[in-house]
């Protein structure tokens, strides 16, 4: 049951992508050559959200994981916020700030999770990699579309 609570939180975050679609505005932006193809985004995010839910569930089973779980909650809130700011409000600078904060929170969460349980920490690592790609994309789009 606990896994499904984490999965529900991830689905809520993912739902912002259904509500705030990239659309014509995003298509008109100059994007870097390393922009993944459109099909890669739902595949990556579905995988990441499943891993996030699994990691959250595993953390609930580990004594002393309260701070890491608080970071989990912070990252899902920031994750949920980014899409409406970027795609909904078209605020590239604010989205970049959110993404930097999200990256820092996830990095801290991974470091702390690794100290508690190496498997859980490793489960979270692909998320940080994808956020690094997202940050590079966000920054490049910001820089080339003033």
Explain how this protein is built:
The protein is built from six helices and no strands. It is mostly helical and 146 residues long. The chain has one domain: Ferritin. The longest helix has 27 residues. 27% of the residues are buried.
In short:
The chain is mainly alpha-helical. 82% of the residues lie in helices and 0% in strands.
Total strand count, please? 0
Q: At the first level of CATH, what is the class?
A: Mainly Alpha
Q: Kindly provide the radius of gyration, computed on alpha-carbon positions and rounded to a whole number of angstroms.
A: 15 Å
Distance between the termini: 46 Å
Largest sheet: none
Helical segment count: 6
Chart the SSEs and their pairings.
Elements (H helix, E strand, L loop, with lengths): L1 H18 L3 H6 L11 H21 L5 H23 L3 H25 L1 H27 L2
For this entry, give a set of tags.
membrane, mainly alpha, TspO/MBR-related protein, 146 residues, elongated, TspO/MBR-related_sf, Ferritin, single chain
């Amino acid at each position: 049951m606990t896994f499904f609570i984490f999965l529900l939180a991830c689905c809520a975050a993912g739902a912002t992508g259904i509500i705030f679609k990239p659309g014509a505005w995003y298509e008109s932006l100059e994007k870097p050559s390393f922009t993944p193809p459109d099909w890669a985004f739902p595949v990556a995010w579905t995988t990441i959200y499943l891993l996030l839910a699994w990691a959250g569930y595993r953390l609930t089973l580990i004594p002393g994981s309260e701070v890491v779980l608080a970071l989990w909650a912070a990252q899902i809130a920031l994750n949920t916020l980014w899409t409406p700011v970027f795609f909904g409000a078209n605020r590239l600078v604010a989205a970049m700030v959110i993404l930097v904060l999200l990256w820092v929170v996830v990095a801290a969460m991974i470091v702390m999770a690794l100290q508690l349980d190496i498997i859980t920490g490793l489960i979270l690592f692909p998320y940080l990699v994808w956020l690094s790609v997202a940050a590079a994309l966000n920054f490049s789009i910001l820089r080339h579309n003033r």
